[in-house]
Amino acid sequence: MIRSLLLVILFAFVSKTEHKETALTWIDLFNGKDLNDWKVKIKDHSLNDNFANTFRVVGGKLTVNYDGYANFDEQFGHIFYKEPFSSYLLVMEYRFTGDQASGGPGWALRNSGAMIHSQIPETMGLHQDFPISIEVQLLGGNGKDNRATANLCTPGTNVVLDGKFFTDHCVNSSSKTYHGDQWVSVDVLVIRDSVIKHIVEGDTVLVYEKPQIGGGVVSGFDPDVKKDGTPLISGYISLQSESHPVEFRKVSLFNLDPYADSPNKLSAILKKLRQR
Asked: What predicted TM-score, i.e. pTM, was given to this entire model?
């Protein structure tokens, strides 16, 4: 079943998404007005304590801000959509703006991410830095060096990449570098634990499969939550605050779960999405 789904997806789907077709029903995770459908968890703060108004809506965009921080002090944050998903196409448009917060780590310059198949936000520890999840790492260029976006990072997880069990924390995609404050479109195709694809401006830049709990690079978690080897077939979606201001003007999702058990139905809906 997994192999057949993987073949269907690899050969039947190339995404360039604009969701204006009435025949396809999308969920706008971010409604452009408020954050009522989201939950905030920032390290060292309790659930839904949006410390220093980090996450806010400005001009119809979901923004991540640090103007209320005296020092970033490793207060990594995440804003979670209210419900989990299993199979879907996630569509985002983001850009980095301004200067990094004082005290932010060097690696976090123009660095954010979308966490998928994430643990339940209520299960995160008070001092936990990152949710156990798969990270679609979003990076902006520094003006001179090559710096791919839609990379893969694995906080408390592992995947199978190119047919091999992958235990490194991060791997770069094949995307180009996006310097400055330009908007970038990133899509993520997720079919349970069968396959995950990262797509930048319509081009597939990374493919992997079999996400599962394992590995390190997460601190402050409840050991009862981290059961190594557990397949990740569903979970929450969250956006990061890692010390550099970032804006999202679109965060939408097409739910593929009704089609995931049928290769024929899945192929047909992916074809429909491709033709849009």
From this structure: 0.91
